[in-house]
Amino acid sequence: MPVRVLTTSPGHPSAEVVSHAVDALHRGLLVVIPTETVYGIAADASNPEAVARLRSAKGRPDFKPLPVMVSELGVTDLARDVSPEALHLAQAFWPGPLTLVLWASDACSDCLTVGCGKVGLRCPDHAVAQAVLTTFGGPLALTSANLSGQPEAKTAGEAVTALEGVVELFVDAGPSPIQTPSTVIDMTASPPLVLRHGALSMERLKRVLNGLTERV
Q: Residue 84 contacts by C-beta under 8 Å, 6 or more apart in sequence?
């Protein structure tokens, strides 16, 4: 599979590049895009075949749910019983490097949740990712652009090295600004549980929501 890399400005994405990426996603292909944390592999979240191809390309185990990129927590139909605390965190840190694990609604495909009943949602703070998401017009499965167990790609070049031959299109907008994965909080736990420490510190999070717990 020939590598196709399209270059664009990180702050002012080219409409042509975004259009190429969105067209590929609508056709069920995989596209690597930048986010503020690390580069990610995107696929149409409503297309089980595309999601399966994403799992295969990354080597992600079948039992692991896939995160989903959305534009706003309040407008997605993928989650149910969203708590006021989850909405409060989203209002404080979205767009931004925070993934919220919520109860999945019936609209959330089993190919994303793999039967766990939960879905991780994130709204990235990167102009290219936002432009692709908005133009696509629906949620996108999005996981870091690397092979499972390997370091995350912080540049398009690192993503190409990791995924050449299994991903159709790479969008290069320079190095990811933060270069640290998102913080992941399980909002289905009581109290909410930090599953992964990432770009948002506990100090910042606790300024917004007291009572967060961490894995021992």
A: none
Per-residue model confidence (pLDDT) at position 1: 66
For the stretch 40-78, pLDDT in tens is: 999 999 999 999 999 999 999 988 999 999 988 866 789
193 lies in which domain range?
Answer: 4-214
Question: Strands 79-80, 98-104: parallel, antiparallel or unpaired by DSSP?
Answer: antiparallel
User: Which residue from 162, 157, 129, 160 is spatially nearest to 146, judged by alpha carbons?
Assistant: 162
Burial class (CB in 10 A: 0-12, 13-18, 19+), 137: exposed
Q: Hey, how many other C-beta atoms are within 10 angstroms of the C-beta on 163?
A: 22
Structure confidence at residue 74 (pLDDT): 67
The C-alpha atoms of residue 118 and residue 64 are separated, in whole angstroms, by 11
CATH of the domain at 108: 3.90.870.10
Tokens standing for residue 121: 């949602």
Q: Are 57 and 166 in contact (CB under 8 A)?
A: yes
What's this model's pTM, rounded to 2 decimal places?
0.95
Q: Domain count for the chain, please give it.
A: 1
